[in-house]
Design goal:
By secondary structure, the protein is mainly α. It contains 22 helices and no strands. Helices cover 69% and strands 0% of the residues. The two termini are 15 Å apart.
Length: 401
């Protein structure tokens, strides 16, 4: 699976994740406490109960404050990660048949609609989209309404979809201060850059796929301080005008910036660009500074993931071994609507294990598979990773083919 397609999966899972704990309210429940409890359950060997905890708690709290949707991104992403990677088929079936009750709970209705909309099966997809469009995006429960609008506006799945433009417009105009709102404006830019690089295209206007305000420069930049910072160094906002000098300037901006929204956007931007040796060399010091100064923020976790990819490209074996140990979560990961870091860290660890196999360093790969399994014990992921480790022990040459 290539880099973009895995990000496509990550974005899809992130969108699905958002629905799992939507109605929690900071006024009536300690969101972080629930998140930490679920994390301890999942990483302690009981991912099924962790998922149930998040779903059942989410049903009990009113949804009168739209800003709660931002607070729930992390717990919801973790719930989605559990469902997609930690549970086995039987456990997922039990949740759908024994736990989910969409007639009684609007949260469950949203979950089923999301699963259908992003199923990849045309008839189910139409049904899910209709639920999102006709019912859930009009919900009186504000966080559920925000989640439905965000999914309908997703640049990864509904590009050109007839409800995408009005959904994004409503999200931005009615809920302008949400993190979800800012990211739905920014995410198409990173997507545009990545796709252009995959297709070896240079003359590409970065706002061309932004549906908000028809991609008009002034309106878009007003909503995103990160894009404004990029535009300050490159007024054309055209991919063909990216130069080493500009990358050096953005790297310096990243080192000096205190606004987390701008820091995160700049890391997204570096990840969206072509990873040439000169680009890596210019951006590496700034990315390393994030890890040193603010190690458990979204931009710092993202920076570590990106640096791990750099170390693979540059064959830094010692650094890779250290990076893997830091990528495995020992506490709940920070969140951002733009991506699920549980998926991204898992992917970075797995790609590093594959890297070691490619070059015949089987013992390193075995240790990595076992470490990932130990991070999520008694899970479908753990079983898969231990199977890979055993295959490498039994016949490393066969396993590497």
């Amino acid at each position: 699976m290539n880099q973009f397609h895995f990000r496509h999966l990550a974005a899809k899972t992130t969108v699905l994740c958002i629905v799992l704990s939507i109605p929690l309210s900071a006024q009536t429940f300690n969101i972080q406490q629930t998140y930490e409890t679920a994390f301890q359950l999942a990483t302690g060997g009981d991912p099924y109960q962790a998922a149930i905890t998040l779903i059942e708690t989410g049903r009990q709290v009113p949804g009168d404050d739209a800003s709660i949707a931002d607070d729930l991104v992390g717990p919801a992403q973790f719930a989605g990660f559990i469902g997609a990677f930690l549970l086995d088929d039987n456990q997922r079936f039990r949740i759908l048949t024994e736990v989910i009750d969409e007639k009684q709970y609007e949260l469950d209705h949203l979950l089923v609609a999301a699963l259908q909309a992003f199923s990849g099966v045309q008839t189910k997809s139409f049904s899910g989209i209709a639920k999102l469009e006709l019912h859930l995006s009009k919900s009186k429960n504000k966080p559920i309404k925000v989640a439905a609008l965000y999914m309908l506006g997703s640049p990864y799945y509904f590009r050109g979809f007839r409800k995408q433009i009005p959904s994004v417009a409503e999200l931005v105009l009615v809920y302008p201060d949400l993190e979800l709102t800012r990211h739905i404006v920014e995410t198409p830019v990173w997507r545009t850059s990545r796709l252009a690089i995959e297709k070896n295209q240079k003359n590409v206007y970065l706002l061309k796929d932004v549906v908000y305000a028809g991609g008009r420069r002034e309106a878009v930049l007003q909503k995103s301080p990160g894009l404004r910072r990029i535009a300050e160094r490159m007024p054309s906002l055209n991919l063909q005008d990216v130069t080493d000098d500009r990358i050096a300037a953005w790297a310096e901006d990243l080192r000096e910036e205190h606004d987390p929204a701008i820091r995160y956007a700049l890391v997204c931007w570096f990840d969206s660009l072509e990873k040439t040796p000169s680009h890596r060399k210019l951006s590496r010091p700034a990315l390393e500074s994030l890890i040193e100064d603010i190690p458990n923020t979204p931009e710092a976790v993202y920076a570590r993931i990106l640096l791990t990819a750099f170390d693979r490209d540059e064959w830094h074996l010692k650094e890779l071994r250290q990076q893997v140990s830091m990528l495995l979560p020992s506490q709940p990961l920070p969140s951002t609507p733009e991506r699920c870091f549980y998926i991204e860290t898992m992917k970075a660890v797995q790609e590093t294990a594959d890297f070691f196999v490619t070059y015949g360093l089987y013992s390193d790969s075995i240790r990595i598979h076992e470490a990932l399994a130990a991070a999520y014990p008694n899970s479908a992921l753990a079983i898969s990773e231990l199977d890979k480790a055993q295959m490498l022990r039994d016949d490393p040459l066969e396993a590497s083919l």
